[in-house]
Amino acid sequence: MAYVNGADDGYQVGADPDHAREADEKLVLTDADFLSIVKAERRTAIGMNTGDTILEERELALEYYKGQMDDVPALPNRSKVVSSDVADAVHTASPDLIEIFTGGDEIGSFRAVGEEDVAAAEQETQVVNHVIMNENDGFRLVHDAIHDALLTKVGIFHWWVEEDESYEDADLERATAAEVQLALQDGELVEIEQSGLSDTTGEPLYDVTIRRKRTDKCVKVDVVAPEDFAVARDTKKLADTTYCVMRTRPRAQDLKARGFDPDIVDGLPVYSQANPQILDQARDLAGEHRVVTGASDSTHDLRTVLIYKHIIRVDADGDGKPEVWQVETDEHEGVILQKSRLSHVPFAAGSPYRAPHRFYGRSLADLLIEVQRIKTALMRLTLDTAFFAVNQRHEVAESTASEHTISDLLNNQPGMPVRVKQQGTVRAIPAGAMGFDPFAALEYVATVAEQRTGIVRNAQGLNPDTLHDTAKGAMQLMQAAQRRLRLVARTLAETLFRDLFVGVHQTLREHGPSEITARIRNQFVAVDPTSWGVRKDMTIEIGMGGGREHDLMLLEAVKADMRDILEAQANGALEAKVVTPANVFAMAKKRAERANIKGVAEFYTDPTQELQQKAQQPPQPSPEMMKMQADVETDRQKLQLEAERAKAEHDRAMQKTAAEVQATRENNQAQIALALEKAQVEIQMMRDKAAAEQQTAREQMQMDLQLAREKMQMDYQLERLRIESSERVGRAQAAQVGSDSPPSIDTDVNGQ
């Protein structure tokens, strides 16, 4: 169903008949009982029944607001001027009142019940303000409700939950039949076309367009025309009323779109525009309800029907506790279109001037109709007197008049003569004097209007020559007007707007969408209102003082005091902090709001955000710890630098040593190879005589050579070989000297 407004245990007749019949079995009251009850209550309710005194007063107020004063008829050929006191007062009070509720970032705020509830209360405040002002036409709602209250005694809000249906098309390219079937589970087929065959399986592929339905819940708020609303006679507070009713005139197609039974809707009679309500005509400014000759009422689904939405508090299930029920019927209470159980009355109402122990209060029009009537009479009298002074009546002596005298006298053009036979034939008849100063009388009546309403002419930016035109007197008058207007604002805030906020909060919590994206602390946050708790305590700030300029002047004085305190804190003159960054931000925000600057976050940043970010970060070390950490880090860096330097020097030394060793090794290897060759020749020559000694020397030479290679890397081996070679040469020479026949140098290495 496209329209939802009831608790989870409620039901809606016409949308689901089987469910309705099951729910009816649990109720003591039948549909016929409900129809009988609401019909009787509507006939005795006050507010929209023919003959109600309040209807006559509203009609008169609307006519006076338009300048239509049929109860003060103008004589023929006399002044028809009309005073506009009612309209002037409404138009003078409306800007200040509207600015009070829309001049800041939020209309009202919920109070936290503890420190742990501050963030939740702020979040709920932002979301409810977002729903009322952004998701609905917030300015129009505030304007129309205040205008109705000032002019017709009461402003009325109504809220409900709607399911908005939207459709979006999605294209699916080269999909198999199985994929198309799967996509159709959450949508309907709009278009399909074969796009070829699969390269792998060879099955046909399709290009399709799927249309998916999307349903979103949202809370709707609207202003009810006071003449279309009535309450039980014993009502004092709308939230506790036993009965109230709202009259609407929807199109038949709109009822069907909301899910009502089409058969029931088709049976509703057409609401004829040829017989409009009296107040409908009184509100017309462009002849909206003028009967057009030859025009006929629309037929079929475009016809207008009359529907009553009844809110009745009655014990329907027999448990002894009355419940709130919403019942929508036709204009004769003969059929139920919808029936649902609610948790609260979805209406809020408030009057600018409350009447204790009564639902309806008084309006500006009630206080000014008599004043407008008197001023209109005085203005007409003054103008008629001026006209008679310029166009006086004349006495004509017929005995001395000519045939041209009367015609010349009636030709009242400047410079035209009046022809007579004798002087004195035409004589002006002196008009009677009023005997009083009409302008003083108008001024007196104007001051009476100011005293009654608190709406002064100085508040309109004028500077009339009034009875209190002194600096002190004008200031006192302005202050008195501000007090009266502030009282009107407070009255509307604590009744009309407070009930609206609490009701929207409760509706969001019980039946609202599961996710709302709202701007909280300059960040867009997704919020689930269904997780909220019950909240009744809230406040609406009334920020009107002596006008915008007066408030800014006072804020400048507070700013100067804050500057002095901050200087004292900086100099150490104050031990405790009197002004914090949060206080400075609050001052800047308030000044921007009173200057009517939107989007304060673009200029100032809330310091609590930085504090929260710091709180989420790990704690910072103390200055001593930070110094110790810095010293340790410095020492670590020095040690690392020294280690790197030593490693670099070691690497350079190792590279140099390796190069030198390699060069020495290569040189030694060459020399050793040469010496070995020479030694082998010498050893081979001495093998015959000293085989045993030669074998021993060879083994010793190999051992020495191996040791030199490992420890001194062949550096000492060459020297030892030289020494050993020299010794062997010496022994050989000595042996040769002691021998008679020296060995032949021609002997080969094998001794042969």
What does this structure look like?
The protein is of the alpha+beta class. The chain has a domain at 624-738. 47% of the residues lie in helices and 15% in strands. The chain is built from 20 helices and 16 strands. The chain has helices at residues 17-24, 31-44, 53-66, 85-102, 118-135, 138-152, 177-183, 252-257, 262-266, 278-283, 364-390, 405-410, 438-453, 471-511, 548-570, 581-594, 607-616, 623-686, 691-711, 715-738; strands spanning 3-4, 109-110, 155-175, 188-197, 204-224, 229-231, 243-248, 307-314, 323-330, 336-342, 347-350, 394-396, 426-428, 516-520, 523-527, 538-539. The strands form 5 sheets. Strands 1, 3, 4, 5 and 11 form a 5-stranded antiparallel β-sheet that branches. The protein has a 5-stranded antiparallel β-sheet with strand order 6-7-8-9-10, with helices on one face. Helix 5 (118-135) crosses helix 14. The chain is elongated and about 205 Å long. The model is unreliable at 1-23, 460-475 and 741-752 (pLDDT under 50).
